[in-house]
Design a protein that fits this description.
The chain is of the alpha+beta class. The protein has helices spanning about 1-15, 20-60, 125-130; strands at about 65, 70-75, 90-95, 100-105, 110-115, 135-140, 165-170. The protein has two domains: about 1-60; about 60-170, Chitinase A, domain 3 (Roll). The longest helix has about 40 residues, at about 20-60.
Length: about 170
């Protein structure tokens, strides 16, 4: 909630008109505010990174980290083709919060599906699926910026939340 209050303050403050003699002072204030926001976001990111690393250490999962911060471990190898952009991926999955609370799932009888590289699902899922082959099963940790970001999903996932997936790539069309 702190971040939303800060963002609203910035928007309201930035929309206020100013006279010429106030312009220089407000420019300096705005630059300082931008620096403060950057530092605040860095601290949030660092806190989330620490929680993710502690979670991985506790689970003893041999994760691979991508340049975006996605963490994955393909623990069961499939024998099919590599996933590609524009294909429709059918997946079974469970989604949990770091505390273990399950928030969503889809099984092999009622799988989830999305068009790789296009559909409106978490950006981390697009990245992950492109690393998988048909039949692979993986444990995946999506930092909030690769999941639902600052806002959450307005249903079961709170704002700025890390997600843990157990996912299987069932088919590619």
């Amino acid at each position: 909630m702190r971040i939303f209050t800060l963002i609203i303050f910035v928007l309201v403050w930035g929309c206020n008109g100013c006279s010429d003699h106030q312009h220089h002072a407000q420019t300096n204030d705005k630059a300082q505010l931008e620096k403060d926001l950057i530092e605040f976001n860095k601290s949030l990111h660092n806190e989330e990174t620490k929680r993710i690393k502690a979670f991985i250490l506790d689970k003893k999962w041999p994760m691979v980290e991508t340049s975006t911060g996605l963490q994955y471990w393909i623990y069961e190898l499939g024998s099919g083709e590599n996933a590609k952009n524009e294909q429709i991926a059918e997946i079974s999955y469970t989604v949990q919060l770091l505390d273990g609370k399950e928030v969503y799932s889809a099984d092999e009888k009622n799988p989830g599906s999305f068009r790789i590289g296009r559909d409106n699902v978490e950006s981390g899922l697009h990245e992950l699926i492109l690393l998988m082959k048909l039949g692979d099963r993986a444990k995946v940790i999506l930092p909030s910026h690769l999941a639902f970001g600052l806002t959450g999903d307005s249903e079961k996932i709170p704002q700025s939340t890390t997600l843990v997936y157990d996912i299987k790539l069932l088919s590619l069309k």
